[in-house]
Amino acid sequence: MAKIRVYELARDLNMTNQALLDRIRSMDIDVKSHISSLDDETAAKIKAGIHAPVVIPEDVEETRVKPTIIRRRKIVVQAEAEPEPEPEAASPAPELPAEEALEKEAVAPEIDEKEIVETAPVEVKPQEPELIKEEQQKQQVVKALKPVKAVKKARKDTPAKILRLPEIPRAVEPVIEVKPAKLSVPPEKTEPAAPVPASETVTTHIPGTKTTVEITPELLRKPAHDKAVPKKDPLVPEKKKKKDKDKVEDELDVRDKKLFKKKIFKKKEIVEAEDLYAPQPRIRKDKKASKIKVLQAQKPQITVPKAIKRRIKIDDAIVLSDLAKRMGIKSGEMIKTLMGMGVLATVNQTIDFDTAALVATEFNYEVERASFEESSFIKTEKDDPGSLIGRPPVVTIMGHVDHGKTSLLDVIRKTKITEIEAGGITQHIGAYHVSTDNGQIVFLDTPGHEAFTAMRARGAKVTDIVVLVVAADDGVKPQTVEAVNHSKAAGVQIIVAVNKIDKPEADIERVKRELADLGLVPEEWGGDTPFIKVSAKQRIGINDLLEMIILQAEVLELKANPNKLAFGHVVEAKLDSGRGPVATVLISEGTLHTGESVVCGIHYGKVRALLNDRGMKVSEAGPSIPVEVIGLSGVPMAGDELISLADEKDAKQVSTYRIQRQRAKELAKTSRLSLENLFARIQEGQVKNLTLILKADVNGSIEAIRDSLNKLSNKEVKIDIIHSGTGAITESDVSLAAVSNAIIIGFNVRPSSKVQSIANDENVDIRYYNIIYNVIKDIKDSIVGLMSSTFIERVLGRAQVREIFHVPKIGTIAGSYVTEGKIERGRQIRLIRDGIVCFEGKNSSLRRFKDDAKEISSGFECGIGIENYNDIKVGDIIEFYYMEEIKPEFE
Asked: Looking at the domain covering 3-51, what would its CATH class be?
């Protein structure tokens, strides 16, 4: 008896294994799995049971699944079995959306997917259509199926009709999607279901919509490769906890939203396989050709920019990469062009305007200087002669150091400035306003030391009259000559004050002769230079000097317009610990008021306070009045111009532009490198550097010290001042000195105790000075210490070898006779044989007979041992010498 397995029988019946197992078990046939064996009789019984017509029982008992009861009405459908048709490949059909009619008092149980449920909808507002999955018939679908037309509207308690279809395997259930139709409110009348003749078409109406779907056997057939849709067992309630009515409604709302979203994102487009995969060689070729044409059209072409685009505006300097980017060329090409011009530059290096103009010409570009128009912010207008009024003269006192300039000014101002200045010499430029019986005079006191040349030059530029002080007992000195030259260069009137005439050794005629040689001829000699004899100590001739100053001022007719924005020059500047940057300004034109916005060099600010020469606050300062200005953003340089502006924004813009211009100049200056100075820079690497950090109380002192120290540099040692500033020594100064191995020089400033402790921890050397002479002297000594010493060979004496002795464990001893000078133990020796130096080394031992000797004079015999050398012969000459160190001297 042949046997067949369950899966083989399922394959013959075109059913899934699980569907066949369910059917077999419903026939009360015991099988365990799909690989169980069946005999021929059992297999025939199963086939007969499957092909037999299905009769749906008319009476169906109601099952309570959830808290409410759903009434169903069954319709019996007779289905005849027909032979299995050939499977046809059907295109997937869209899903059928429908509206679930739910009563508020009931929750519908899950219905078997094998049933087509006809439900009477409740009179509620139309809701969004839901997606309904319809089962597809097996290939042995009944021909005569009584179709049922859905009822659009029914009463609330009308039971629903349930149509049970034949059992269909799970493997042939397709998912049908239909685009949802627009919802409309169903009419109140109930239309009875009209009988339809049996045919192969089933017409189904979706409740609550106007959509009618015809399901044909072709749609119910599914290709073999389609995936089966899982099926649930009928009338099996889900295991859930009891929920009240509100929770159930919330869950239904969430479910409706999910289905609505599912409807949106599961739209399908039906495309025939022939249209999708049909070969199109001509179209593909045309696409390829069009791509080639597009690529050819997008190929970059070399174009020449317009003439206006070949014109570039730059500042005084520009980074090479920025210039190349603006010109539209590669940086490498520009670097190559610069190398051909003899300039070495990198991508991030700054080049000046001239170099940029030359390299731009090579690429047919023009470079223009994009200058910031300061004239649009700083307007200079010619004054109306009617608006000019007289102003006090500005008098600068100049002369050699220690000739009595400040003492003379003390007598005039009735003060004691000389006693305040360190060392009795002036190291600051001071501006003072003096009221005399003859009028007002503004005095500028300049230092006489050679280091303060720049101060004297500034004093001569802003002055109207120069009082040249010459000591009668000392005559004309170098700084006197320098003061005369500065005054002549500035084109100002010179008044000579011959001081110290009370001294016995005073020689006034000598002073006149020496000054006449410089072009200052006295009036009594037919010249135009007034000579006034004064004595600051004895207060002699002071009034005569003041009268002469007023007389010269009247001759000059000094006038200015006070009714305009202020313009002046910075005489001195410093950083005060309590007030911040303080600048001593001499107003030349206009009037400076408190609260005005000013530009001073690269700094700007608003005038917070004005102080006169005696430290008292004033509200304004007119022409020729010196004041201290408080409120600047930084410490300006001595000699900078102070300009008052109407708007603070304009002052800030001018200051920003000046800062950028200064920075660009510094970058261009430090980064410029050419083939000519490349070797010089390599040689500079062999030069020793003395690194310094300079801090002083005022800017003028810094300038003087810096200029003096830079002059001390020589070929071996270079002075490198890496930082300078006004104010006290701070922690940042100490940190910079620690990193750079620098020495901090504090001139009239001192650090706090905290900064001093940090300097001690970092081993930073801080030197304090209040006289500029001492600064220069100590730096000279430091330079001498860094300079290399020279060595000179000094010969002590010579000895001739007359006998050779071989001593065990010691070596060869030369019995010698001292012929010249004297020889000393431990000195350097030189062994000479036949006039040729054979060996240079060190003396290891020196004996006379059996005793060690420190030195042997000429005419005595001795034994000489040479360190690590034994090849000594009779007749050799041993020369003793040493190297004498000659310390360098500062030139």
From this structure: mainly alpha
